[in-house]
Every structure is written in structure tokens, then in C-alpha cells.
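DM from R.C. (forwarded with permission)

"hey, sorry to bug you on a friday — could you get me a structure for this? deadline for the figure draft is monday and I only need the backbone to look sensible"
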Amino acid sequence: MTKKTARKNMVAKEVLEQAALLFAKKGYANTTLQDVGNAVGLSRPALYHYFPSKNALLEAMVEDVTVVGARTLVEIRENKKLSPEDRVRRAVEALVMWGLERPTLFKVIDRSEELLPPDISATHEAAKRQVLREMTSLISEGVEA
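My reply, with the result:
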């Protein structure tokens, strides 16, 4: 990873964190991109380099909260080097840490589910269903073992 890419990722993460704090505090509808830019010290045009819209911020939050969580559980379930019991343990640990590391993002997504645009909502719902399927499968495999 180049320095430029690393810096862009770091700034994007900070933008996302500040946006989540603002969305949690003021609500998605009452937060402007200017508010987000002000929180991270970027002009609105500079902010567009990282996220072209508020919906893009919301989409990134959904990606980080539900989609990444679902992928993590798939990886754990597919890791046949671990016993079924260890896979369940790892999955539970991953879910707990996932929530503890992203409390504001979880709060924002929970409060904003009904406001999600249809495409983002579909991604979120599919990932939530996948999390449920993965955990059900892991637990069933653990019980069978």
C-alpha cells in the first residue's frame, strides 16, 4: 500500500467515524455534508474526494457493519482447520468484538434502517440474513459434533 493510499484510507475512516457521530447525534436527515466536512477539517469539495454523497457515507457504514460481519462469519464457518466448537467460539468472539469496535455505526444503522435507500437497504437486509444463516449453521454444526 502506498503512502497516498494509506492516507486516503485513514482520512476516509475518520470521515466515516465523524459522520456516524453526527448521524447518531443529529440524525441522518439533519446532518449535512458540510457538517461532516467541518468535523474533520475538510471543505465540502474535498470531502467529495472520499464520499460523493451522504448516501455513500451510509452505504460505507452498512458495508462496515453488516457486510463485513457476514463475510467474517463465512470465513470462520469455512475454516475447517478449527473444530466446530472452536468455530462457534470464534464466531461469537468476532460478533462481540465487531459490535464493541463499532458502537456508533451500529446505532446509526439501527436508527436509520427505515431511511436507507432501496439499494443500500437490500444490501443491508441480505447481509443481516447471511449473518443469521451463518450463525445458525455454525451452531447446528457445533450441536451435531
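R.C.: lifesaver. Residues 84 and 142 are 5 Å apart (CA to CA).
me: no worries. The two ends are 42 Å apart (CA to CA).
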